[in-house]
Amino acid sequence: xxxxxxxxxxxxxxxxxxxxxxxxxxxxxxxxxxxxxxxxxxxxxxxxxxxxxxxxxxxxxxxxxxxxxxxxxxxxxxxxxxxxxxxxxxxxxxxxxxxxxxxxxxxxxxxxx
Length: 113
Description:
mainly alpha, 8 helices, globular
């Protein structure tokens, strides 16, 4: 996929339409970094994510399907992340430690309304 193709629509819109995979986000990150001064949008905006969605994805890249499902359903992002975190804590794999730590702090900073 060329940089011109990547600029045609935000990554998250393409991902939600099934036009790209979760693994393709790296190409979009690369395109944003290479755009230089021509690109004025923030990285989350360029990707088509809210700042919160981007922060959660940055903490654990495996959350893309969760972010998409939450956006499509109109559900609470905090509740979705709390549920995801609960599942991670239940299985406590060594590889999840950093994500568990980061998401736990995100939940603490975002109390329920």
